[in-house]
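Researcher: I'd like a structural prediction for the single chain below. Treat it as a standalone chain; there are no partners to consider.
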Amino acid sequence: MTRNEYLARAQAEDDWAPGWAEIDEAFKRLYPGVTPSHFGADLAARAMFGGNEYIDGYSLFPSPNGYQHLVTYGMSTLYVDEEAFGGEFSGWGYEMTMKIAATDPAECRWAIGSLSRLGRHTYTTKRWFEPHQFISGQGAPLRDTSTTRLTSYLFVQDTEVPGIETVHGPWTSSSWLV
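Model: Treating it as a single chain, here is the predicted structure.
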């Protein structure tokens, strides 16, 4: 897509979110015919409107492999942004994913909260997470109100959705292993 085509589409479709659509397409290829559960941040809480939620949404795809595949929407450039067109990276250069051993999306809310905090950390400190970076919970469980022994994250590339090219630049899909 050329810059002129990008600008023309942006003018014609005031609700066009090219980055969001690219994430949706990447996961539709992996999970054809699956309708994900989607969770959005409260509009008033979103950072673009003065709040402290930097991730706009999350989708959970039930995998035939017995887990929920969670993806964020907000670490890459989601919406029309002429300055971001053709960039070296889309936003921070990644979206976060997590594979959660659960059959019910409601069991995954702890993971959504956890990725929300990691997104907030990136945006407020201006420090992104690197591949193979270890993030310690300093012995505290990662899941609130749980007896889990999971206390740390390891940042790696998602093996099922390795990344995509977007009009705003490429991003990788980075998984959190716990």
